[in-house]
Amino acid sequence: MPPLLEVRDLYVSYKTYKGILKVLNGVNLYVNEGEKVGLIGESGCGKTTTMKAILRILPPNAVNVRGQIIYKGSKDIMKMSKRELMKIRRNSISMIFQDPTAALNPVFKVGEQMMDIIKFSYGRRMTKKELKEEALRLLREVKLPDPERVFDSYPFQLSGGMRQRVVIAMALASAHELLIADEPTTNLDVTIQDQILKLINEVVVKRKLSVILISHALGAVRSMTDRTYVMYAGDIVEMADSRNLFENPLHPYTQGLLSSVPKLTGEGIGAGIKGRVPDYLNPPPGCRFAPRCDFARSECRKSKPPWIEVSKNHYVSCWLYARK
Amino acid sequence: MSKLKLRIINLRRKRGSSETQKTSPRVESLKRAWYNFRKSPLSLIGLGISLFCIIVAVFAPHIAPYPEHAGFYINFDEAYQPPSWKHPFGTDAYGRDVLSRVFFGFRFSLMMAAVVLSLVVPPGVVLGLIAGYYRGTWVDMLIMRIADIFIAVPPLVLALAICSVLEPNVFNAMMAVSLMWWPWYTRLVYNTVSSIRNEYYVIAAELLGVSKAHIMFKEILPNCLGPILTKLTLDIGYVILIGASLSFVGLGAQPPTPDLGTMVSEGAKYLPNYWWVAIFPALAIAFIILGFNLLGDGIRDIFVSER
Amino acid sequence: MGEVMKLSTYMLRRVIFSIFSLLGLSVLVFTLSRVLPGDPARMAAGPRAPEWVVEQIRTQLNLDKPLFVQYILWIEDVLRGDLGYSLTTRRSVTLDVIEFLPATLELILLSTIIFIIGAIVLGTIAGRWAYRTPDNIVRAFAYVGVSTPAFVWAIIFQLIFAWWLGWFPIQGSFSEGITPPPRITGFKLIDSIISGNFIAFKDYLWHMILPSLALAMSPMAQTARIIRTSMVENAGKDFIALAESHGLPERLIMLKYLLKPSLIPAVTVMGMSIAALLSNAFLVEVVFNWPGFSRYAISAMLNKDLNAIVASVLIIGIVYAISNIIVDIVVAYLDPRIRYMERGE
Questions:
Q1: Does this model's pTM top 0.90?
Q2: Does residue A131 contact residue A120 with C-beta atoms inside 8 Å?
Q3: Can you tell me the mean pLDDT for C118-136?
Q4: CB contact under 8 A, B290 and C143
């Protein structure tokens, strides 16, 4: 069975005032049907860019977009016609955005936005009454206490948690195969994060969706996903079954990342990772983590490391694990 | 004030450069500003046009082919000549060379802009500094309320009204325009000052007992320069536009003064047959204003990209 | 959570605020007219009238009373509709206003329609094809438009479209041989429709086009720029990405979800432009010999017709305030956050 979605050699750059930021450096990942895949990495490493590329909703200043995004083993999303792409967006893949305040149009009522989404996703002609009823149904599904009122509200009248539930409700309208959750809780209060993650878990199970979960809540990623990718500066550096990854991180970056998380056992906070954020304007020719890596060797600075299978379903992109 | 205090203040200033640079921070930021400015072709065009107009204005008596035509001159034999090699812009009803008059028109417009802005900007800025520094007190209220009244009135109307009750001439027109202009600078500076008034380096200076005047002019003012410069440049264009409009209507410069607006209104009578008498001055107005607008935008972009 | 203030409450507050503004303006205008040099009584009487006549006029015009009292009396007159006597037209200024103001308002109305539609179209095109050729053309036009005064456009249009090409009339509001409609509302467009005189209606409209277009150029350019910038900025925002991610058709996104938030920063500028239209109208009225209020105001100013001047400035101030209110209401309608915030503070 081919994977539901496979990203191959994806390159994306952004054109800015300062120059061209070469963000994605040949990203490869895949999601199987029914699988829940995690994606972790620091802010700005290109996770959102990858997700936006999948749906082809990159901002206008994205340039030099190359690569393939194979859907269900046959069609390349990058080459799809507008019509085929619309079908994917309306019925197959959907996204929950990181900042619910930014994701909702501030000058339209929630109900209005939802009705338009439902109208185009459901494919059949619906009266205004039917659209409203369906919207209310979705709002109830995401456990909003007063769906009628939310329907009639503007985004700024709702709390952060409520806004995110609205975004999830919208995603449910057009996600029947793959749900991409891009840091769904990062911008929310700590008390709400748990609820939202539970909600996402529920709807995913109920509707049998595949998921890509991006989050800084490493604990959640570990418990909610089957397999996890680690990303740094536009490269995928490690991938493993989630339990393996968190128990046995191989890549120096992953090790640093996981040790930065305070442990409940009270072992104290790890040393963190030295060095600065990566330079996307003039990225180093070899491994992009080399400038910050304690174990960097000469070949690390010269060429990009290969993708090596170190143990069962556990891959790393690091020279340390090349034929010793 | 002791040298120690001065040095402490210098360290806190928002100039942002290390002690180890060979050139002074001022020169560095100028170089950077020029580099940013150079990147936009429109800004360069604006700079070119503006410089061209300024040079023409300053040297008009020397480069105009017929400088004596600028004022009172009559030669009916040469009247109504269409554009030719001898008179690239043609001649008007009195036989005067339109090209020369346009050059003097630039001179006149820029002079007016210079006078108005030098009358308006210093008091406006100072008032804005004071109001912003003493924000929240009666000083602030007083200054800003007065400014608000002036801003609420449609600008051109106020200028017209003033001009109308006085004798229509250049001087009064300039006074009228100045009177309604200063509040814009006050408000601009006030907004900028309000936001930086409580920054640490200002408070540090206050605690050190530095005089208020010094704080306002040496600490706060340099950080307002961006918006002030931008507005100033754009205003040159705007003052020229208002000046030309006033003269066009007859409330500003009177004939035979070579003011571009007056030339257009005189020439309008001779459309369409002797179209050049009105059209060239009209295009000249658009040209010079365009130049300063482009330049002003370019300057604004420098300060925006620095942020 | 907060209730969003009703539109009507918002309107009421704005109106009250404007009345205060207008009072301030009236004080300013009045003081100006009485304080500046020149003897109004002498001017009204004429240079050859004997001194006692001048004195009589002075008493009649209340010029001997203190300024404050004069002001009160003047306000009373104004509220009764008496704006004084015009030296140039030799009749009540109020009558002059009634005759000339509608023509200018019609001109401004057409200009407003032209510039708003033009700006939205140009701004959307420029935003949609940002950084490419259509955008560059629109931006070039925007610069030129903003830098060129209305009378320059007027002269150029008159030369090219009226004189050389002959597509439009050169001057005035009616062609020879056309009977103007009877005065019902004073608005010639409405009057011609009411009286069934469609020929006059078309003729009038035809005369209106060039002056309105010339007036509309500058605000169109300025507003188009803002709409364009706003659209480009908003196009990269997440709420547009969300709309795209759900497969909403591009046209719907552009014309509904992108346009509405992008219009908001433009509306403030639009409002200022509409108000500016009123003061710039005279530039165009003069060139096209349009029988409007601004031209009347200018000739009053040139002739030092004090009553007419004061009345003109006041009328312009009132129209200015009204258009500002309308703009504020439109903004509040477009951006509900503003209504919310006003209540909350």
A1: no
A2: no
A3: 84
A4: yes
